[in-house]
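Pair request: fold both.
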Amino acid sequence: MARIVVAHGAWSSAFAWQRMHALLRERGHTLWVPTLTGLGERSHLSNRSIDLDMHVRDVCNMLFHEDLNDIVLIGHSYGGMVATGVADREPARIRRLVYLDAFAPRDGDSLLGLLPEPARARMLELARSEGDGWRIPSNPLPDDTSPEDVAWLTPRRHPQPIETFRQPIRLAKGEPAMPRHYVYCTKIAPGDVFGRFAARARTEGGWGYDEIDASHNPHVTVPDALAELIDRMAS
């Protein structure tokens, strides 16, 4: 049995991983998905001071209070920034670090800095024009998201505090030392920002690598396939 912890993506929260609990439990695993401050059921706490460091602390605090060790830590999308910070602070608790179609930053990187210039400019303009200068409205869902899932997800996705994207990550211990694994979603959206991290995982030592025939949110669109993949990595 593995203990699996997910750092979820931007604009999202724990609710989006609902389908994965039963599927992983059937395979003998337990799943924790802490909702990051200012999002999901914690959206009432949203404010302009929320940054990447606060989201890293959200997950670290859960690991401490739930007394979780020997975990498989998954960072999805923006959650790769968060998971990397958690791995730097709590390496003894983490057995494997998994990036699921996620940003895999190095020391000093910010999410905005890792985006291509057009995408970065679009985010900043959306924050200025629609988010009072500090909130970024959510990205569109992938085209293959079913109408039922669009109706379920859309009202539960909340604006992302901009400092979570703007603050650089600081890694006191350097590159994570535990085994790392990258999972690349191959139904690629225009302006794909994750291919560079997939290429890094394929060419650097110390990484495992898998692909999944899915768009960016496999926990929503292909949960069974994702559960099989997580089961294999966790085992």
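--- second member of the pair ---
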Amino acid sequence: MSQYIDIESLNQQISIEGQFLDSLLSNQNKVIVGQQQMMNRLLIGLLSKGHILLEGLPGLAKTLAIKTLASSINGSFSRIQFTPDLLPADILGTQIYNPADHQFSIRKGPIFANFILADEINRAPAKVQSALLEAMQERQVTIGRETFTLEEPFLVLATQNPIEQEGTYPLPEAQVDRFMMKVLIQYPSVSEEREILRKNLNDEIQQKISPVIQPSDILKARASVKKVYMDERIEKYILDIVFASRNPEKYQLKELKNLINYGASPRATIFLAQAAKALAFINKRGFVIPDDIQQVAKDVLRHRIGLTYEAEAESISGEDVINTILSNVQVP
């Protein structure tokens, strides 16, 4: 009974602490039409200190989405266009020699911002991608002998074009695993595209977005997300999903054994829990339910499960594998 009272009071507390999300989402909807899932996933990443890998065709408001989010939070924004000739110094910054005083000074690169759009990240070579990796993982940048801590909140939104693969460098599995979620962006519906058309004709898309919250509010919200209650049965549900991707035969999923080359990493377990807590917070709920796990599972797992040649030959996708796991793992 006491636990019920605690959860009830936590529920009310989270509901109050999450009220700022209404004004944040309302502010973004002035500019962004549709793409609710993308905006939702950006918020989950922001509240969980996770980074997002977006895959979608050009023109689907990826740049506009993160730029609008940065403006709404009064945070700084940098857009980095990844190209084959890009150097690590172009992202991180470099040392500049000043002949007047015979000393080197640090010129910081575009990575020093709250929100980073890494556009077409797979067009840059491995050396550049590894430079970005330190910033993402350690939240710091090393230039010469100096190390600089990046200002929080810090969110990297990396994009990939799923169609044009000429002149690209596939991201190493170790780097892909650092992204909390891989989100697939779809075309808008007819009604949404009509609204996009009208807003563009009336220059409404170009309107200036005023900040409705401050970066400090996001840091407070992160502390609130950590308070969201997760029952042991939910923890077991997460573990069962992840372990079913590694040892499917132990979960009566023998048909998947020859389709999975490697299963989800321990980061999948951590990110599933963090993303579910953030989603519960966004829904102003003080506890995680199985539906939270199911909603974020595909985004957290789709880039962490490697398929065999047999799966590819049978045109079986990672989504199919994840759907089979979710359909068969017992829900608490």
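Observation on the second member. The mean pLDDT is 85.
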